[in-house]
């Protein structure tokens, strides 16, 4: 009681540490007030080169050039190994060129797989396939403005790769064809893809559709953060994917499963003496089977994977529409996905 007859209540004094902790943890206070009332120590500023030296116009353009160069060299390596083994296995079967065959379908299977793995390594994880590029742009938020440059780089890589192989084997082709400069579809098939004689165009379309769909499913599975596939193992996985497709589905149509792997070498053959027959074959077979069928196969495979198997809604257009934010998040997989998107975003600007 005080002298005026009023009661006073003694409130215990809380320690300064407790008061600061209470204020800082109060969810109804603004973050600025909470930080100001506590002994806040700002984090150590990042010291990476990207923060110390912000990207310039030149560095952005160089990064984009690197992406296109990676696609070019990736497809070039793939075609050098693939067309090279085709030429060696077939041309060496002619006794006028070789005393014994120097390859068979087994060596073709292995070499194409090695070519894809090597191309994946040298491109640093590039697409190396227009069908994959278009599918990722359609359903996985890959920038559309990069798609034309990627496809042009991939086709040019296929063209140059085929030119290198042709320069290495054109004498053997002369021997196999029976005369200098003689060129028929029999040896054009060493570079581009052509269906077996008993196959209808519809059957060839279906074969290419299934082959590219299987390849796309494999690519999506190794890129899925939840599967936690180490980056160093991705080329090995690509080797087994293409080797399996070649061994199981490749014989009837020569397994294009990649528009650039067919169109680039086909352009080369039309320039070196094979003429327009490489385009007019079976009512423009080259458009429907190696290009349209593979693109549709990759599209359907991505839709199926994203609906039934993939749950990272932050990357997939389909998952975002179906699940929104109501999907189970694997923290480790989400961190991997975020790091990959941050890395890709460094070269998103077209300038």
Automatic annotation (TrEMBL):
GO-annotated cellular components: plasma membrane
Family annotation (Pfam families): MIP (PF00230)
Gene3D superfamilies: Glycerol uptake facilitator protein
Membrane-traversing stretches: 68-91, 111-137, 149-169, 198-220, 232-251, 285-308
Compartment(s): Membrane
NCBIfam families: MIP
Protein's name in the database: Aquaporin-like protein
Organism: Schizophyllum amplum
Upper lineage: Eukaryota, Fungi, Dikarya, Basidiomycota, Agaricomycotina
């Amino acid at each position: 009681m005080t002298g005026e007859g009023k009661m006073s209540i003694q409130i215990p004094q809380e320690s300064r540490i407790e008061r600061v902790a209470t204020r800082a943890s109060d969810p109804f206070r603004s973050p600025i007030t909470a930080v100001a009332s506590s002994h806040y120590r700002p984090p150590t500023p990042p010291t990476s080169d990207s923060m110390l030296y912000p990207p310039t116009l030149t560095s952005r353009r160089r990064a984009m050039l690197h992406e296109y160069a990676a696609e070019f060299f990736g497809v070039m390596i793939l075609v050098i190994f693939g067309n090279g083994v085709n030429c060696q296995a077939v041309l060496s079967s002619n006794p006028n060129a070789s005393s014994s065959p120097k390859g068979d379908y087994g060596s073709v299977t292995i070499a194409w797989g090695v070519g894809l793995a090597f191309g994946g390594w040298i491109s640093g994880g590039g697409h190396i396939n227009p069908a994959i590029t278009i599918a990722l742009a359609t359903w996985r938020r890959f920038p559309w403005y990069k798609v034309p440059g990627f496809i042009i780089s991939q086709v040019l890589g296929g063209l140059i790769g085929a030119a290198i192989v042709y320069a290495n084997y054109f004498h053997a082709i002369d021997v196999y064809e029976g005369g200098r400069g003689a060129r028929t579809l029999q040896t054009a098939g060493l570079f581009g893809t052509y269906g077996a004689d008993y196959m209808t165009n519809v059957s060839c379309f279906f074969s290419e559709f299934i082959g590219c769909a299987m390849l796309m499913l494999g690519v999506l599975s190794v890129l899925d953060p939840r599967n936690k596939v180490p980056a160093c193992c991705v080329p090995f996985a690509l080797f087994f994917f293409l080797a399996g497709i070649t061994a199981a589905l490749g014989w009837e149509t020569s397994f294009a499963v990649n528009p650039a792997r067919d169109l680039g070498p086909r352009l080369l053959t039309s320039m070196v003496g094979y003429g327009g027959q490489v385009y007019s074959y079976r009512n423009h077979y080259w458009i429907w089977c190696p290009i349209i069928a593979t693109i549709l196969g990759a599209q359907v495979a991505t839709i199926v994977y994203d609906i039934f198997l993939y749950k990272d809604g932050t990357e997939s257009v389909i998952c975002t529409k179906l699940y929104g934010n109501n999907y189970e998040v694997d923290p480790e997989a989400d961190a991997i996905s975020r790091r990959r998107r941050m890395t890709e975003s460094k070269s998103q600007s077209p300038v």
